[in-house]
Structures are given as structure tokens and as C-alpha cells.
Amino acid sequence: MTKLTRYMVPLAIVLASLELHAQVTADRIRRSSSEPRNWLTYGGSYTSQRYSLLNQITPANVGRLESKWVLQNQVFGAWQATPLVVDGVMYVTQRPNDVLALDAKTGRVFWLYRYTPSPDARVCCGSNNRGVAILGDTLFMGTLDAHLVAIDAKTGRQLWNTTLADVKLAYSVTLAPLVVKDKVIVGVGGGEFGIRGFIAAFDAKTGKEAWRFYTIPGPGENGHDSWKGEAWKNGGGSVWVTGSFDPDLNLTYWGVGNPGPDWNPDQRPGDNLYTDSVVALDADTGALKWHFQFTPNDAYDYDSVQVPVLVDMNWRGPAAKLMLWANRNGFFYVLDRVTGRFLSGTPFVKVNWASHLDERGRPVQTPQPPGSPTWPGNQGGTNWYPPAYSPRTELFYFSVWENYASIYRKETVEYQPGRNFSGGGFTVLTPVPGAPGVGIGRRTPINNWTNEVGSGAVIAVDPRTGERKWKFDQFDVTDSGLLTTASDLLFTGGREGYFYALDARSGAMLWKASLGGQVVAAPITFEVDGRQYVSVISGHTLVTFGLRDAS
Amino acid sequence: MRVAFRPVFSFTLLLTALALALHGAAAAAQRPAQDHPGQYSPIDIETGSRLYAGQCALCHGAAGDAVAGADLRRGVFRRSVSDEDLAKVITMGLPDAGMPGFKLQPSEIDGLIAFIRAGFDVGGTAVRVGHVGRGQALFEGKGGCTACHRVNGSGPRVAPDLSDIGAIRTPSALQRSLVDPTGAMLPINRPVRAVTKDGKTIRGRRLNEDTFTVQLIDDQERLVSLVKADLKEYELARTSPMPSVAGKLTADEQADLVAYLLSLKGTR
């Protein structure tokens, strides 16, 4: 540490505490990791590392965690939201488009905002909402009927309401928006309904659209020739997980979903840009700086809707600006986030849809004969579950589905506005061919997903080698996100309803609580009045843990 | 856990079964030869497909769900269970509901039923669904099913309770369970043998499992939850303790048993 930084760090902390009840400025969001008492964006910071500097809860005292309060959600269905915490106030969404403001210390509710989506809203996979974004005193939420609403953070009253796209064409928003400077950036869902996906930015004050980037390039645009005929018009490319932002490069990064129809690539010959890609967009204009496609002409629904995790570390020598990406297609990638150059790619689960990646990162595809299993299966080796990265351990953590395969079936499907446009289907590979299968979702407390059809795990991957450093096995598959802290703790859950604190260095289980409902989001941590808390959503409850008093 | 195949005989039931079997013999004689026992032929399904489009789709819709209370493609009917029931509705109509009767050849009626049983999929499998009463007699008699299975509060709990099996399984899945019990078994139902660290052996049927625990019903019909860390041994059998009906029941008997199982919709 230089003399200057030794002086700067305490100064920054003093400045941060002066802002305790100030508005959430764009600058505060940019420096959010320096105020770890708050959780200001979906990914915890613009890097989306879900790494917190808080270190009051440690491997030594984690056994003293106890439940401090519980918020009950009265709306059934998977609860995938990441709450925000701003100076002691928590903002969390519940189905379909409710926002709650509550005291982060006691769980008592200040206000409830209700938005009723149009009955025409269509979503493939549940009335999910993954959270809000904040700027100033204003919260922003995307809705199931493809609107963006601004809400007064103190009163819960709506300030403006902008229509993003036609709900009758099955556009929706399920992701938490990302605020960059004076703009709110969102993407749209609808990849199973033949949409033409886009990412768009709106003026935070007025809701007026500032720019729009179509994830499927139109005639005359670069990449359009990766489509033939009219297929691009219903080419999918949904964006349903929040992106990241690099302020120094002024680039915002987004993962793009599957092409449509999902399972019939014959209907859309070509690479189908920018589906199953990451796109790097200028934050002010939405101009495409670079793209990298993970799965060209995808036949397996391998949405690349993972959270882009931005990491600065040495790469084969010099310091580098990297992006780490464990993809639904079963490969773990390291990209140069300045240029989009492919640096490495390694399978992290069994993969047979491609033999390997070539030197530019393009998969050499090996389609399996009809009726034969494809690894990984439709839900992927991992999926949208937020990963975590610790600059202390230099390990990348994420949830995986191991030994899981699907048998795909493709059908010709005709596009009809707002109707399902998936072009086939899939079944989970069973131990005996043709036996009754298990569904991919968990609907009851009974586990129908035994280790004979796949199992879940959290793995720690060394980005430099792509190799697993350790693995934490679960019997059921897991859709849980991750949280890691400066005390080398790693928090996660799973479908079984356990909530775990693991040793981030070894993967050893240090503590667990049985919460009884599936964890399908990532835990967060924050601090109020000098005490660190960890919140996790399990089933229909949001539980906030803190240390039991030592006395 | 292996459970001996132990047929349960009941004189009354046997007589009932005999009477029903004689009653059904005439109908059975009309049926064309089967490529696969207990299933309709692809030709039947094809025939039914064409007839359906011309005669039925006007009211029932292309997807078979246009009439309230009936979803033909998914096997949801207002009253019918067996193929005989369906044949009766097709030929006699349902005057109360405004459905006319259709004058069709027996092979055409078979075709329509085959198409419905195949889930409107001309490449699909159409399992024949026989007579509920005869199926019940087989279930409780010659089939020996009640040695292990429980229905509506009577019978042992060793094997899964079948009271609502007709609401959660298709005819083809039921037929597969009868013919190939191991292949059709859901992995969660596997038989468990566990030995605790203090030497106690527990056998039962798995109900649920997670990373740290397993829940089962043991051979004494007790609900048991075990912590894996307390176990010395934990084994799952990959084969079903249920014997196959193949070679033991005729194709007609299998169709009757499927009909009975399909009629089990739980108590309402």
C-alpha cells in the first residue's frame, strides 16, 4: 500500500459515513464496494462479484448466526429476487410486481407498492421478478407486461411508467434494472415466444428512452447475415439477467438468451447473432463495442443469461481486465473485457454437444443422434444463478448441475404473435430409457430429483486454469446464487431448503440452517448500526441472520 | 427389500371376474390382431386421425379441448373411463350434452379411440383401456396387487398407495408399470436398506431424500427419517420388488387392469 492510498482509504470511509442518509448518487453506485454496509445493485457492485468487504461474521463465529427476522411472502411460486439495502432500508420485490420497503434491522414494512400487470402478460417460466434498481430517491422496476416503472423510494408512489414493448407479443421484464449514471438500463424476456430481444436505456428522471440495442441485428446492421430470410424477426435473444458495468471503459455488459425457436435450429440457419452471446455496449449510446458468442446456432436452449463477472487480475503475466463466465452450455470462459478476446474455455461439467472450443473460443459442435442424450441438459451446467468471485481467494464460485442430460426433440413451428415458439421439447434422461421422467422444476417439498438423474454442487474454479479447486455436493440440484465476504465465507442454498456458510478456501461446511423452502436467488449481506447481517430467501420467506450476542 | 408375490384369492371376486370375463368375451373377439399386446396398431391411430378431423374436430376442436369438461387429447372425459365407455358415447351420443351418435364401423370406432388414447399423436402409443370392473377383480384377485398396494384406505402400505394413480399417470405409463416395473419406477421410490451405527437394520421404501437425511416408510409401515451421518450402511435397490404381469396376464387382462387403475382418481 502506498502512502497516498494509506491516507485515501480512511478518508474515503469518513466521506462515506457522511453520506449515510444522503441520496444514492451515481457516484456512490460506482464506488459501492467501498460502502459495504449497503447493497446498492443487483450484483452488489458494478463488477457483479457479490463479494462484500464486511468481515464481522467469520469462520470462527459463523456458528453463532441466528435468525433475527423473517418476512413472509404471501405470493406463491419461486422467489428469485435480490433485495437492495440502502442506509438501513431494504427494498425487495415479490410476485408478480410488488415492491416492499422495510426496516433492514427488524423486517417491519414501511410501504408496499403494487403493480398489476396486464392480463395479456405471458412468461415462459413463472411470474418472476429479480429486483429493483435505485438512483437518488427513486426505485426502478421492470414489469411482467414489459413496462418500466419509477417509484418514490420514501413513499412507494409511482413517478412514471414507460411502455417498453407490446405485451401482446409476449415481451416481459423479469430482471432487476441496472442504473448507469443518469440512465436505467433493462432487457426484455420472451425468448420462448418469438420476440426480437433488446436492451434499452431510459432517462431516470423522465422515463424517456435514450437508446435501444436490438440483440438481433436488422437488415443492414452488422451480424444480420448470421440469419437467413425472415428468421431474424422472431429470433429471440431475450435479456433476463442484469448486466455489469466497467466505468473506466464506459462499457456495460449483458448476457443474451437463446434463439427462437428454442430447439429447432433448422428453422434458423446461421450463427444467429447475438443470441447466446455477451455484448459490450457503450453506456451512453448503446453502440456495440464487441460481442462474443458462446453457442452459435444453439439447439439446446443454452441462454447466455449469466451475470458477467468483472475481475482485474494478472493473466499469464501482466495485469488484465477480465470477464469470468460459467455458461449454461457447460464451458467456463475467461474473456478480455476490453476487446472481447477469448482467453480460455474449459468444460466444468460433462459436455457432449461440442468436442472442444477452437483457439478463438468457437465450439466444435458434435450434435447427438435423435433420441440420444445431450450433456449438459436443457437447464445447463449452470444457469442464471448469480456466481461470486473473491479477490482474496482468487476463486470463482457457482452452482452446477452434474451428470444431467436431456433428450431433445425438434419440431417445425409456425410463428403466431404472442404464442409459444419453442419448436420441440426435451425430457430429462432417466436411469432406464423411456422411464417416466422427472420435471425440471421443484413444486413440492418432495425431492423427485435423485442423484440418478443428476445432482447439484457448488464449485470453486481457479480462473487461471479453469480447474476445480473444490466441490460442495448436494443431493438435489441447486438454483442458488452465491455470496462471498472478506472473511472468506461463502454463503449459498439450494432446492433442499438448507442455507449454508462454507469456507471459501476449502469448501468445508462451517454452518447450516434448515429453512425448508428452496433457495433460488443469491444471499446478500449488509450492516446496520455496526452489525453485519446476511439475508436469504428460502421458499416464501426472506430470513435475515445476525450473530447471537456473545453473552 | 423383496416382497414375495403372493396372490390373494377370494371366491366371490373370482366369480365376479369370471362373469365379467364371459361378458367381455364377445367384444374382445371383434378386435383386430394386435402388434403389441394391449396396444392399438399405428393403422388404427392413423384411421382415427382422419376420422377425427372430419367428424369430431368441428365441436371438440383440433386440440380436443373445445368442449367444456373434456380434454380428449389428455384423456380427460366427463364420464368415460374404459374404451367400451368411449365406444358407447361415440355410437349413442350424449343427447343431454347435445352430442349426436355416429354410425361407424367397429374398426373406425377402434381407430377413433386409438387416436384419443395416443394423445392425438399419430406416431404415439395407444394403450387399450378395458373394463373397470374386470380390472378391479384382477387387481384384488388373480393379479395379486393388493398384497402390496393400498387403495382408498385398504391394503398394505409397503408399495405406493394407488388411490389417485389414475389422476397422475397416463394409460401408457400405467401399462409400462405393469409390464416393466423396474423400468417404469421413479428413482425416488427405490427400496432402501440402511444400517445404523448401533447396528440396527432398517428396510423400507424411499419417500424423500436430501444431502443430509432420507425419509422412508419401513417394512413395519412406520414413517422413519434417518440422518445419513448416523448410518453405517445405506443401500438402494435398483430393481423393483414388483413382478411383471407379462406372461401372467393376457393382453385383455392388462387392458382391464389399466382401466381400473385409470378409474382411481382419489376420494373427492
Silhouette of chain B: elongated
The percent range for strand residues of chain B is: 5-15%
Spatial order of the strands forming the largest sheet of chain B: 4-3-2-1-5
Low-confidence stretches of chain A: 16-20
CATH fold type of the domain at 187-236 in chain B:
SH3 type barrels
Which outline of chain A best applies? globular
The number of distinct β-strands of chain A equals 38
Question: Poorly predicted ranges of chain B (pLDDT <50, ≥5 residues)?
Answer: 1-34
Q: How far apart are the first and last residues' alpha carbons of chain A, in Å?
A: 38 Å
User: What's the end-to-end separation of chain B, in Å?
Assistant: 33 Å
Mean pLDDT of chain A, to the nearest integer, reads: 94
Architecture per CATH nomenclature, i.e. the level-2 architecture of the domain at 187-236 in chain B: Roll
Report the biggest beta sheet of chain A as strand number plus sense, adding barrel if it closes: 5 strands, mixed
